[in-house]
Amino acid sequence: MRFQVPQYIDVEDKIFGPLTFKQFLYLGGGVGICVVLFILLPTFIAIIASIPVAIFSAALAFFKVNEKPFIFMVEAFFNYMKNAKLYIWQKTERTAVPKTAAEREKPIEELYVPKLSDSKLKDLTWQLDIKENQNPVTGDEKQI
């Protein structure tokens, strides 16, 4: 049996002439809002108010950003404005202040300061190299 595989699954069907159903709704809604503005407002103010509405409805219907419809950008904008923001700043270094009077009076020489190295990994590799040099392994004794 032969089956026909759909090839253009990412293209929406054209229902109203050259427009898809979503495009028709966006343009119809924009035209409807413009008509309401012309009925309720004086002509000059209605023209000024309907220009952004017409541009927005045309952008919803036809404009794509990175091959995605403009409505995704509008949705992302509203989600960004609705959700909490995370503000990150640079942390300032604080110096340790001794809490007790005894800690303040101790001279620096008496305080124990642990040995710190740049990297524990370097210390481990150095120790392994020293142990290998003390007990060299011959080719016969190598373990896998």
Could you explain how this protein is built, in words?
The chain has helices spanning 21-40, 43-62, 70-82, 101-105, 120-134; strands at residues 14-16, 19-20, 64-65, 68-69. By secondary structure, the protein is mainly alpha-helical. The two termini are 57 Å apart. The model has no long low-confidence stretch (mean pLDDT 80).
Q: Outline of this structure?
A:
The chain is mainly α. The chain is 51% helix and 6% strand. The protein has helices at residues 21-40, 43-62, 70-82, 101-105, 120-134; strands at residues 14-16, 19-20, 64-65, 68-69.
Helix and strand topology:
Layout: E1 14-16, E2 19-20, H1 21-40, H2 43-62, E3 64-65, E4 68-69, H3 70-82, H4 101-105, H5 120-134
Antiparallel strand pairs: 1-2, 3-4
Helix pairs in contact: 1-2
Helix percent reads 40-55%
Q: What is the H/E string? A: EEHHEEHHH
Count of separate DSSP helical elements: 5
Strand order within the widest beta sheet: 1-2
Radius of gyration: 36 Å
Shape: elongated
The first-to-last residue Cα distance is 57 Å
